[in-house]
Design goal:
Largest interface: A-B, 55 and 55 residues
Oligomer: homodimer
Distance between the termini of chain A: 20 Å
Strand content of chain A: 15-25%
Shape of chain A: elongated
Strand order of the largest sheet of chain A: 11-10-9-12-7-13-16-15
Chain lengths: 368, 368
């Protein structure tokens, strides 16, 4: 989708232009098979101007819609702006691949772009190589090195990048528990350990992921809907795929058959098979909401990339543990994570830990 | 101790004067049997001035030293300032009691103070009643009603006030644990689950409390020193009383016999007896650092006022639970706490929960 820079601004340096491109990118959806990408076009250098100004901008709205570069070029064309000799500043290396849309590389060449600056390499086996392709055709292509900009650009495509690079979805596990690490009291009662603010926050997160998984045990015990709902309890525009993992059948009146995303029942206990099945469906970001058997199996297999931790100020002293034994016997062998960001959700503490450290902390998607 | 307001400022209204008094109070120590109190004196109203200015200020440095009111009056006298007709603005109701020092009420009367504004009622059976005493002698005495100021004043004397009011120390439990609520791996390894920043933070907290308690089990297993140390690992100026709870003897070479606070061995398993023994020693704030048997017994008895929660981004899946069964079988019976404040300590999440909610959140002592 394109934005109109009606009054050219004197944003000259590439870093500032990349900031604009990153802002454009955030207009795109967090879910879906494609990454969020933004692009702005800088006017050619001119003797009359000390600084080059942005002449157009655009972003990618998701699979099947124009890529950010094409959106920016279209934005310029619609307003009669000549793009010949312009510089494209784009958050991801331009694709070199005919998929649902034509390659961005040819679109840039056809528009007469003579310089391309990008932030993140395209990791795709099919779509990558755009930089070299353009260079071979005389375009000056280079990658920005500013670590803070790169971190923001990486954050923007974190889950997509991971899925393309590793061949499996990025896995976020949600743990909503008592201060002492329990998800249910001794008699099985668990609604609600965490407060309303945490649960609302959880729905915002759901509205950003591609799929939510629970075990058949959790589906049978809690009868969840696994929908993303807004504050008025209405369904959000985007509903993630609902995934149930396990052998047992669900009753015909299960809430999982109600309004919401598609339902996928994976009759397996093999977490690798679960992720492979989801990768086949171009799921980039999977949110796992339990039960402990699935969560623990994912931890045991080293397949968890991020944990969303909601801790309620309540003590149970007994009951169901959020995480069960997964083979750690001594502290030195326990997996260490990185604490990315945290805040209070009502009376609960919320924080995000990841396997990957983070140099700069920006607004996280879940906070939007 | 007194501060010099060399250049009288046009701080007229009582709220601002109380803010100054609260600031003065924070110069006093957080530990010790006495509360932190601050006092400022406002010049008598004058036809020449639209606003009354602060003429003196002082705070209480701890038991045996002048109370804040006397410190402020002394501050004025030393600089030749006439206190007759002045208003005393003080964070706590002036005491009416001869203890280690003479009553503040008489000091205020002798100084010719004609108006007293205070924030917090003195809860002491001996020391209370100062307001009525002064009123009976013609002083205009009133209590400030601003909720934000009152909250700050309450926070200042929270632990002392609790101890005087209830007859037992304010109890803070420290829980330093894994994401899944464990304080040791299956083989007993526990050093260190939390990171350096959390441990340093724990030492800052130790330097503000009156006593630290552990069980003999923890003393024998971990051989802790229970000292408050600074970043260079030197002993802090204030060392809390070290308390060991349990029947077993400690070995003669235990670190608890090394440099640090006095050592008190309480040969009991009765947590009420522990608190009574500490109340006898004028301990206002007890920090409990384990083991789980003591912590759990305190939770079971409903004797915990605050929990300092340090959560490391590490998963154990098995091992020693931070809190054991204390009789909760269903969620509705579990004690609910209030999340007061939280921040990140290195890679760990840290937050404070209390039994008492808090309307306004100020800098906590532990953050200083």
């Amino acid at each position: 989708m394109s934005s109109t820079f009606g009054s050219p601004r004197s944003v000259s340096d590439i870093g500032n232009a990349m900031d604009y491109a990153l802002d454009e990118a955030t207009n795109g959806p967090q879910f879906g098979p494609n990454p969020r990408v933004g692009c702005v076009l800088l006017a050619p250098a001119s003797d009359n101007e000390l600084r080059r100004h942005i002449i157009a901008g655009g972003w990618h709205e998701g699979a099947g819609t124009p890529h950010a570069e094409v959106a920016a070029i279209t934005d310029a064309r619609l307003r009669g702006i000549d793009t010949r000799g312009a510089t494209a500043v784009v958050t991801l290396e331009p694709c070199n691949h005919t998929g649902l849309t034509k390659p961005c590389t040819d679109a840039l060449l056809n528009a007469g772009i003579t310089e391309v600056v990008y932030a993140i390499d395209d990791p795709g086996a099919d779509s990558g190589g755009g930089a070299d392709y353009l260079r071979a055709r005389g375009v000056h292509v280079w990658q920005i090195k500013d670590e803070m900009i790169l971190e923001e650009a990486r954050e923007l495509v974190l889950r997509w990048y991971h899925a393309i690079k590793t061949g499996r979805p990025y896995v976020t596990v949600k743990l909503a528990m008592s201060l002492d690490g329990r998800i249910a009291a001794a008699d099985g009662t668990s609604q609600w350990i965490t407060g309303l603010a945490s649960r609302r926050h959880g729905h915002v997160v759901r509205s950003t992921v591609d799929a939510i998984a629970v075990t058949t045990g959790t589906a049978l015990h809690d009868n969840p809907s696994l929908t993303a709902r807004d504050e008025a309890d209405n369904l959000a525009a985007h509903q993630p795929l609902r995934v149930v993992v396990g052998m047992r059948d669900l009753p015909a009146d299960a809430n999982l058959y109600g309004p919401g995303g598609d339902l996928l029942h994976l009759r397996t206990h093999d977490v690798h098979a679960v992720l492979a099945a989801l990768q086949d469906r171009q799921i980039r970001h999977l949110l796992v909401e339990g039960g402990p058997a699935l969560t623990t199996a994912l931890f045991a297999a080293g397949l968890v990339d991020e944990i969303h931790v909601y801790i309620a100020p309540v003590l149970l002293g007994a009951g169901t543990e959020a995480v069960s034994d997964f083979g750690i016997t001594t502290l030195a062998d326990a997996p260490r994570w990185h604490n990315i960001i945290g805040h209070r959700e009502g009376e609960d503490a919320f924080f995000i830990v990841r396997t990957a450290p983070r140099t700069w902390v920006f607004d996280l998607e879940a906070d939007e």
